[in-house]
Each structure stands twice: as C-alpha cells, then as structure tokens.
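Try this one yourself first.
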C-alpha cells in the first residue's frame, strides 16, 4: 500500500473508532500487524459479514476475491501486503448498520509491532512488542510515537502504564540490523464513571450534639407556646365573662400558669383529680410541660370545677 493510502486508512480508522460505535469485529490472533503468509480469522456477530477497504477494492465482502466465509466468520489463510486496509462488520440484511472499523497491516519486511487491535480503556496498561521474523525471539528495539523516539527496550517490549487520552497516536518500532515495523494506531477510550451513593450512618442510641442543640432550642419555644396559649384562653374567658355579665351574671376568673421541665420521664401529668383535664403531647428526648389552671366562679347554685389544660413537649 502506498504511504498516502495507508495514512488515509489510518485516519479513517481513528475517525470511526472515536464515534463510540460498538466494535463487534473480533480478530484472532488479536493484533493489528502481521507478516506476509500468516493467517488471521475475522469474526462478526450472527447475521453480519466482514467487509473491507484496501487498494484492491472498496466495501468488498469476504469471498469476493479474498477470504473464505463460514457463516459470520471470514478465514484468511495467506495474507499479502495488499490485504492491508480497513475491516469492519456489516449487517447482511441490507441495512446501513455497521460496526467500527479495524486497521490491519501486513508487512513484507522482517519486523512488526504487536499492539492492541481494539481501543484500550483509559487507566489500563498496554504492552507493545517489537517482533522480528527471524530470529523469532525478542531483540532489543527502539520505539517511536508519532515519529518521536520514546525509548529503547532490551527485551523488545514497551509497557505504557495507565494509558490516557494523550497516549493515543501512531506507534512503530525498529530492530537494529532487521528493519522497522509499519505504524499502528493506539486509541484510548474514556473509562466509564461510577457514582456511588453516600453510605447512611447507622442510627445512634445516644443523642447527637445536633439533636441536643435542637432540643435546647425547642425548650424556650415551648415556653413561648404556653404563653400564647394562656393569652388565647384568657381572651376566650374574657369574652365569655362579658357575655355572662350581659346576662346579669357575675363571675370571677383567674388563671394559674405553672411550667415544669423534666428529662426522660414517662409519668403522665396528674389529672385524676380533675376529669375535665385536656392533655396535648409531642414526643422528644426532654419533657417540658405547662399547667394552666383556669378557675371561674359564678353566682349560681353549682360548684364550678377548675379547668386544667396541659401542654407537654417531649
């Protein structure tokens, strides 16, 4: 393949892989570079077939002059340099649905770079292996990214630790005395974010400082409520007394207010002596209650009973 065609194919592969379309083409062995006369298996999902763009043709399907089709699997038993190009899966139903593309390179030289054929996840470690055709064991190699030297490795393996988006680019290697590999692009996809809900602390049996502060603020409020209650009752009694005086009845009314405070007590207010007692209760950790005794005397034959109103805040 001519350099301009290879560059265009690599650019197109990068563009398609960045669209986020699911890459459902499987390559075995899983690498992007091969020596001539090696074999490769391309596997699509059921109902899909392999297509490619190379210097020999555009959007040609497996068995249209290349490969052997077996269901959704395409076997290429002997690779040649003109097999270098873009490969993808396409629906056999005739729809325009297709997978993302994969760039495969076939080298007629003696050095290839073994690198991931699919985009790698951000944060993963990636190993690049520089492989010579003969001898087959690893040799010292120099590695390059986008044409810039990034280091020598005596074992022929270059490890990229915790890759990030800035590690994307074209990589190649060179083995002294054997030659240079074709370039292969490494794409990095963002790691999906995981949001964890904050754990709820277990309830505590003892009162927290915030609850104690809340209670300390409620106690003065209880006193205010009791005072307001006294004023409302007194207003009601004055109106009733005025009505009684208009009817010719004389009455004497007075109010006795008592406020008590107690912590963690369950005793009920002593209202047994007065059957007309009314009790209002709100539960908290501390107990504050007020006793409002309203006494009213009239010039009648019956003995008036005191009216007691309890307002309790727990």
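Now uncover the answer:
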């Amino acid at each position: 393949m001519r350099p301009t065609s290879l560059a265009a194919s690599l650019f197109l592969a990068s563009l398609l892989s960045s669209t986020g379309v699911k890459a459902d083409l499987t390559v075995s062995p899983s690498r992007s570079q091969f020596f001539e006369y090696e074999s490769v298996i391309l596997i699509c999902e059921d109902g899909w077939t392999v297509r490619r763009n190379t210097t020999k043709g555009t959007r040609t399907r497996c068995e249209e002059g290349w490969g052997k089709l077996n269901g959704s699997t395409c076997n290429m038993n002997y690779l040649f340099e003109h097999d270098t190009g873009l490969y993808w899966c396409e629906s056999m139903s005739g729809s325009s649905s297709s997978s993302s593309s994969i760039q495969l390179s076939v080298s007629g030289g003696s050095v290839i770079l073994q690198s991931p054929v699919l985009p790698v996840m951000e944060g993963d470690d990636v190993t690049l292996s520089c492989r010579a055709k003969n001898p087959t064991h690893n040799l010292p190699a120099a590695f390059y990214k986008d044409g810039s030297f990034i280091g020598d490795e005596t074992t022929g393996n270059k490890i990229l630790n915790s890759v990030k988006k800035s590690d994307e680019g074209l990589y190649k290697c060179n083995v002294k005395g054997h030659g240079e590999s074709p370039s292969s692009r490494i794409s990095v996809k963002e790691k999906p974010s995981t949001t964890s809900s904050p754990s709820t602390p277990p309830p505590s049996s003892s009162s927290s400082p915030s609850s104690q502060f809340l209670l300390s603020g409620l106690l003065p409020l209880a006193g205010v409520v009791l005072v307001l209650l006294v004023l409302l009752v007194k207003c009601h009694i004055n109106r009733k007394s005025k009505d009684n005086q208009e009817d010719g009845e004389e009455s004497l009314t007075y109010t006795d207010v008592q406020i008590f405070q107690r912590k963690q007590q369950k005793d009920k207010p002593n209202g047994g002596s007065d059957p007309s007692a009314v009790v209002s209760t709100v539960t908290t950790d501390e107990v504050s209650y007020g006793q409002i005794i309203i006494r009213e005397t009239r010039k009648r034959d019956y003995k008036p009973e005191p009216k007691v109103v309890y307002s309790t805040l727990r």
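Discussion: Residues 209-246 form the longest helix (38 residues). The radius of gyration is 44 Å.
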